[in-house]
């Protein structure tokens, strides 16, 4: 299995990734830039994968706990944290976030971030790599598992920030309500200006009253296929 070291283009930070396992994409980078972070926040990243989100946000919060089921990915994430000298700010835990009570007390965190599997079982082609398949399809964690785990972790008025496919918006809103969340911010992501949204960024709060802020859409590419100015700013280009 081939391993490579990728540049995150932020403060000289780099990240290990392995071919045959799920490698982070623009989705995780967009999610890392979506939350309104505070220096005193204790953050939990569910299904952290390569730990790209914790590494990108570590300087803006008090501490990030990151849990990953895949032992190969968890070990790789730990090496990336060590490489970037962030051991005092990020803790990688190998475990199943459906069983958070084994690792944490309830209602401990200010913010939960998650880039979950987008596809329910039976929808879309399944990748032959088990690691990639589990990251894309709900083999190990359903949408309900994700939101239920976030609710266990979050304090009252804590926030969940998640990226997901736009076509599941209604299902997500219903699931959030069943677990005492109210959606507070929504930003749709369009591949190009003239294309419909395919992804969305969601912020939901535990125990909040209704009142949704719909933000301007995020356009990823210009007509010529180049990155939009906002994406260039996010990547520091």
Compose a concise summary of this entry:
With 237 residues, the chain is of the alpha/beta class. Helices cover 26% and strands 30% of the residues.
Question: Your description of this structure?
Answer:
- 37% of the residues are buried.
- 26% of the residues lie in helices and 30% in strands.
- It is α/β, with parallel strands linked by helices and 237 residues long.
- β8 and β9 form a beta hairpin.
- The longest helix is centred in the N-terminal third of the chain and has 13 residues.
- The strands form two sheets. Strands 3, 4, 5, 6, 7, 8, 9, 10 and 11 form a nine-stranded mixed β-sheet that branches.
The description of the largest β-sheet is: 9 strands, mixed
Give the low-pLDDT segments.
Answer: 124-137
Number of strands: 11
- Work out the radius of gyration: 17 Å
Q: SSE order, as H and E?
A: EEHEHEHEEHHEHEEEEH
Category from helices, strands and their pairing: alpha/beta
The number of helical elements comes to: 7
Please, what is the average pLDDT?
Answer: 90
How far the N terminus sits from the C terminus, by CA atoms, comes to: 31 Å
Report the sheet-strand fraction.
Answer: 25-35%
Based on Cα principal axes, name the global outline. Answer: globular
Helix content: 25-40%
Primary descriptors:
single chain; 237 residues; alpha/beta; nine-stranded mixed β-sheet; 7 helices; 30% strand; globular
Q: Which SSEs are present, and which pair or pack?
A:
Elements: E1 3-7, E2 14-18, H1 26-32, E3 42-46, H2 52-57, E4 63-68, H3 71-83, E5 90-94, E6 109-114, H4 130-136, H5 143-153, E7 154-165, H6 169-178, E8 181-192, E9 199-206, E10 213-214, E11 218-221, H7 229-235
Parallel strand pairs: 3-4, 3-6, 4-5, 6-7, 8-10, 8-11
Antiparallel strand pairs: 1-2, 7-9, 8-9
């Amino acid at each position: 299995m081939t391993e490579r070291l990728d540049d995150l283009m932020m403060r000289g930070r780099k990240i290990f990734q392995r071919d045959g396992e799920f490698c982070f994409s623009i989705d995780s980078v967009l999610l890392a830039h979506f939350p309104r972070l505070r220096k005193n926040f204790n953050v939990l990243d569910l299904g952290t994968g390569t730990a790209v989100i914790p590494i990108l946000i570590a300087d803006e919060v008090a501490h990030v706990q990151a849990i990953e089921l895949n032992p190969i990915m968890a070990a790789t994430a730990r090496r990336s944290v060590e490489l970037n000298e962030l051991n005092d700010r990020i803790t990688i835990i190998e475990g199943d976030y459906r069983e958070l009570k084994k690792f944490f007390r309830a209602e401990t965190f200010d913010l939960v971030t998650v880039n979950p599997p987008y596809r329910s079982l039976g929808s879309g082609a399944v990748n032959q790599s088990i690691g990639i398949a589990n990251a894309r399809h709900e083999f190990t964690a359903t949408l309900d598992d994700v939101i239920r785990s976030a609710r266990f972790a979050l304090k009252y008025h804590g926030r969940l920030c998640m990226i997901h496919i736009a076509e599941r918006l209604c299902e997500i809103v219903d699931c959030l309500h069943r677990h005492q969340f109210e959606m507070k911010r929504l930003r749709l992501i369009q591949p190009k200006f003239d294309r419909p949204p395919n992804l969305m960024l969601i912020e939901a709060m535990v125990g909040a009253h209704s009142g949704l802020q719909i933000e301007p859409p995020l356009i990823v590419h210009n007509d010529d296929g180049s990155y939009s100015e906002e994406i260039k700013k996010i990547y520091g280009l």
